[in-house]
Amino acid sequence: MSGRTAAGVAEKTLEFPDVTDFADPLLVVKDLHTSFRTGRGTVHAVDGVSLSVDRGTTLGVVGESGSGKTVLARSIMGLLPVRDVVRSGTVEFSGHEMTTMAPAQLRQVWGAQMSMIFQDPMTALNPVVRIGNQITDSLRLHLDMDRKEANATAVELLRSVGIPSPEDRIRWYPFQLSGGMRQRVMIAIALACAPRLVLADEPTTGLDVSVQAQILDLLQAMQRERHMAVILVTHDLGVVAKRADQIAVMYAGRIVEKAPTRTLFAHTRMPYTRALMNSIPRLADPSGTRLQAISGRPPDLIHPPPGCRFAPRCPYVQDKCRESDPPLRTAASSDHVFACWFPLVDGAPAPATAPSPNLETPPS
Amino acid sequence: MTTDTAPGTPAPTDGLPTSPSNDTVLQVEHLVVEFRSGRQRVQAVTDISFEVRKGETLGLVGESGCGKTTTGRALVQVQKATSGVIRFNGQDLTKLSGKELRGTRTKMQMIFQDPISSLNPRRRIRDIVAEPLAIWGIGSKGERDAKVRSMLESVGIDPETAGDRRPQEFSGGQCQRISIARALMAKPSLLICDEPVSALDVSVQAQILNLLADLKEEFGLTMVFIAHDLAVVKNVSDRVAVMYLGKLVEVTGSDELYRSPAHPYTEALMASIPEPDPEHQSTHKALTGELPSPLNPPSGCRFRTRCPYAQPRCTDEEPLLREISPGHQVACHFPLVKTSVGQATAPA
To answer: Can you tell me whether residue B322 is helix, strand or coil?
Structure first.
């Protein structure tokens, strides 16, 4: 294991010079498609996604289960099954095209330049390896540290993610830690080699709200300290409201609205984004306030509906929505895009569009 | 345990409801649940008392490991209480024999956190939902089929297409709907919901919470709703009981709890809720650290190790649950006071 350093592989070593010019985006994804061939047909999990992430910033990717947000994160990273998967489009990371990289080159990127925090720390951590060794693996591989140096760094990393008495804990196994502690270990592993981009896929789903707040604060502090970019994938707009610089809302494999966070909340154009916001119970509402649920379910990605994919669940649906697919277009500010024929104005439907009976609770 | 209180503070009510009224469906007194951990004993629930009135929803909120699920399981006697009294419609469940206890099962039902694993994967939806009727021999086959159909419709599942399918063919939200249908088949009067929405997306969560509100109305249910997210609990509950490390720390009406949280832990739970609003500024102090081990709970107030306002007295003396205003109980020596802007702050 120790001899397999990044430079030791046959492929040419990728250069990631320290960039001082922060004008260029770190990650540029163009027209990314990922589909899976299954027995029932081809599932278009990611269907034409374009986005970019600047250095040191946070992009929130929000959507329901099955919206393709996890597959998007994995497609960016190149962590996809080998069989029965078709990926097209480009993923340019720090000047390197990821989609055409050989496996050996990808290994130079993974962990060192780009890393991932997975949803379930119990299954993402190796249950039979001490947590210290899980951290030192990547340190020794990418940074060429010796055992002693790597151990010392692992202790510091565990300390920095808020694990008490890290000198003892590096010898612990994952099952000896609580869910929140395991997620801290996952973060320590992801940050070990100081990557430029961290993809956090639902890092706090399954944790208590109090632990969730702690983990998200930790991630944010580490990000500032190390000037990392973060893609934070979640189903809860509340999680990204105060932590993301920009937010992309995904529905049925596509981005349906993308804007800087404040713009997205203040000038929501896409009814789906508004519906996601409204479905969250608010502490300030009186007890018993009826939630504005989104009726129905996301569409089948083997046979997506014609026209707008949100049309079958949209409270403001019109005939045109069922017939033709709305393209992404620019709102008042150029960094705000949305895909809707009848966008909301100031959070309410445009005057000409009356709500249809599709709405479970009419907006007040 | 210390029983003294400082002069001038209201007398402790010892955690008991001040006046158990006739419409009390469930009354819990001094409930203790212990588990063995090697040679040690660990108290998951330490001397808690509360009541649930007819037609109300009581929310039980706290972090993982605070004993809220154990309390829920003790209420239906899936978990034996070590000591204490659980009175359901006047009958002490802890004293009942197995046969007598079985007789109460139709009246109290439970739904669980993981909707997929709480349904038998090898059985058809129709049979899963009909099971309670089959067990109790209620109705003829035709009557049962009709009841299953109408109940599935009530929870928003199409009985024609879903009846012959198996749980794996459904999403988490749909499985939770099926679990709810099964729980309501025997016409219970009390429904215990143990984290029914925490495994679900926010959009599906809203659907299930609305469904529970509708069914409560339709079937006249009394509910105990257990969850870790105070925003969810507040939305569905009439009253909320906040639990920390096996003890109740605050019990009050849900709107009162939001307006003037009196326990620092309640305030911390509020601060950790992710508000979907980038302009929102929480004035509450956030929670730090982890839950202490229940094997060796801190002396005095159990929350003092994480409390931003802890004083020497909190280490020495355990605060008892006492009433600070009508219907508002708190276990804290220095409860937060409400200021004119409606935000809770520390006492001077």
So the answer is: strand
Domains parsed from chain A with CATH numbers:
6-17+25-244 (3.40.50.300)
Q: What is the pLDDT of residues A282-299, one digit of tens each?
A: 988 999 899 999 988 889
> Which residues touch B233 (CB under 8 Å, ≥6 apart)?
B59, B60, B61, B225, B227, B240, B254
Task: Provide the shortest C-alpha distance from residue A354 to chain B (in Å).
Answer: 23
Amino acid at A73: A
Nearest CA in chain B to A237: B276
Chain B residue whose CA is closest to A163:
B289
Question: Which residues make Cβ contacts (< 8 Å) with residue B311, sequence separation at least 6?
Answer: B333, B334
d(CA A190, CA B231): 31
Residue type, B43: Q
ipTM, interface predicted TM-score of the complex: 0.83
Shortest CA gap B204–chain A (Å): 7
Separation CA B244–CA A304 (nearest Å) = 47
pLDDT in tens, A178-235: 888 899 999 999 999 999 999 999 998 878 888 888 889 989 998 999 899 999 999 9
What are the CA-CA distances from residue A321 to residues A31, A46, A325, B326, B348 (Å)? 23, 21, 7, 55, 59
Contact state of B276 with A241 under an 8 Å Cβ cutoff: yes
Q: What is the pTM for the complete model shown?
A: 0.86
Cα dihedral: A81, A83, A86, A90 (round 10) = 50
Closest CA to B65 of B263, B290, B321: B290
Q: What is the DSSP string of A292-325?
A: -PPPS-PPPSSSPPSS-TTGGG-TT--HHHHHSP
Q: Which two tokens stand for residue A177?
A: 């830690």
Give the single-character DSSP code of A348.
B
A 57-96 near B (Cβ less than 8 A): 64-65
Show the tokens assigned to A159.
């300390």
CA–CA separation, A78 and A80 (whole Å): 6
| Pair of tokens at residue A123 | 């299954």
As a whole number of angstroms, the distance between CA A16 and CA A285 comes to 50
Inter-chain residue contact A262 with B280, CB threshold 8 Å = no
Nearest to A291 among B234, B235, B288 (CB): B235
